[in-house]
Amino acid sequence: MTSRLSNDTVQALPASVAVPSYDRARIAPGIVHLGVGAFHRAHQAAYVDECLAAGETDWGIVGVSLRSGDTRDALAPQDGLYTLAVRDSGGESLNVIGSILSLLVAPENPGAVLAALTDPRTRIVTLTITEKAYLRAAGGGLDAAHPDIVHDLANPHMPKTAHGFLAESLARRRATGCQPFTVLCCDNLPANGATLHRLLVEFAALRDARLAQQGDARVPGDARLTGDASLAQHIADEVAFPSSMVDRIVPATTDTDRTRISGLLGVEDAWPVMTEPFRQWVIEDDFPAGRPSWEKSGVTMVGDVGPFEDMKLRLLNGSHSAIAYLGLLSGHATVDRAFADPAIRQFVDQLWAEAIPTLPQDAGLDTADYIAQLARRFSNTALAHRTAQIANDGSQKLPQRIVASAIERSEAGAVPERLTLVVAAWIAACEARGRTLPENHFTDPLDLPLVALFGRNLPTEETVATVFDLAGFAKDHTELQTLIGLTAAHLERLRQGGPAGAFAALGI
Ligand code: CS2
């Protein structure tokens, strides 16, 4: 197969494939997206595609990769087009998405990314950069000692991090009198907009201090500012950071998917994206510079996303991590297989029951319906969502998925046995790499200190206490010791008897 999916070939695809119904040449960029991975392409880009089809032509997406050029290399020869394959046991539908107009690779050309961010047509910047890219220290504040932050403070015009790009472009927009864009965080962090806002103000304050030290309190290039409000103050007061809850399960694309989809299209698609039928996006409605009419495409616009976010992080993502680690320890490679294991299924039901009381009781959440739907989604055999994929970056994910609920249950006088078993399963799965699991089966930013720690063969409770300290779990919290004790008891049982041994202590 020689010919490639592109503007030229898209109209000749089989009639069963849905293609953009709008003239892509007439779409103007209005959104810059940082982190143009598979999740973005299955979620925000698909919603925006519908807005473009409905005639809102000002909201095309400029996709930015902050690290590698892989996505650009695959999609640029395809004019940014790719196939979204929506799959469940009932079948598959193929949709070519046209909302990504161009692709940039930040390390290759930071100037081009800054040009897109400062383009007055850019009114929204969305982000899916994964939890670890927010560069939070164990206590939750900005990790000011991180080498990339240090780099960006020293080289504000050539940034590497999302923080550096946002700060520099907001400074330049302010200097030219251009309204700030709205920053819409789409990562699985609690209060994600507010969290990014706080981190960016912290970053900008360090940047302001640095520039002041260099004898220039003004934003570089700004003729109109005379050291009045700092950039930090400007970001704190003038830039909107609505929070949002995003949801769609998106397994990593495999070579088999590539070959199969290209065969169905009759032209090569170098990077199609696989996903499930379900999708959800709940966004706080705070867009001073305007926004697409997302509500017409099924997005829920709200005043406070908190309750939706907590429900999603604690029930969906919490149980996803549980299924990943317990599944790996039980030899299950995919979520549907792990979830079909009766012991894991029973454990997940108990885990949900333990976490539900931490959710707001007065927000109208229908948790029974939500978990029934999760059970159906996790049983989707067509997705083959790998447990190892979800297992990545546990130290960054567990705080909001598991540890927060465990702290709250413990404070309320309950014993969070299931929640702490998930933390123990994470530690056990990390220890199992290079033994019963392949060496780099999944990775974590804390791998270096974790591997060193496991090599010391400390008593279990000491190991767990050190892991909590490294990851900042329940840092400085009154419940810390209780949670360490519970986790250590589970870890001991996991080491002795595997998941079955740990489940037995819970009557499973
Ligand atoms: C998963 C999420 O990989 C993971 O950690 O839990 O990516 C999950 O599939 C999405 O949040 C679903 O919306």
Automatic annotation (TrEMBL):
Does NAD appear among the keywords?
Answer: yes
The answer to whether UniProt assigns keyword NAD to this entry is yes
List the SUPFAM superfamilies.
6-phosphogluconate dehydrogenase C-terminal domain-like, NAD(P)-binding Rossmann-fold domains
Q: Where is the Mannitol dehydrogenase N-terminal domain?
A: 30-296
User: What superkingdom heads the lineage?
Assistant: Bacteria
Q: What are the record keywords, sorted? A: NAD, Oxidoreductase
**Gene Ontology molecular function, alphabetical:** oxidoreductase activity, acting on the CH-OH group of donors, NAD or NADP as acceptor
Stored Gene3D superfamilies: N-(1-d-carboxylethyl)-l-norvaline Dehydrogenase, domain 2, NAD(P)-binding Rossmann-like Domain
Sequence ranges assigned to domain Mannitol dehydrogenase C-terminal in this UniProt record:
304-492
| GO annotation, biological process | mannitol metabolic process
| Record's protein name | Mannitol dehydrogenase
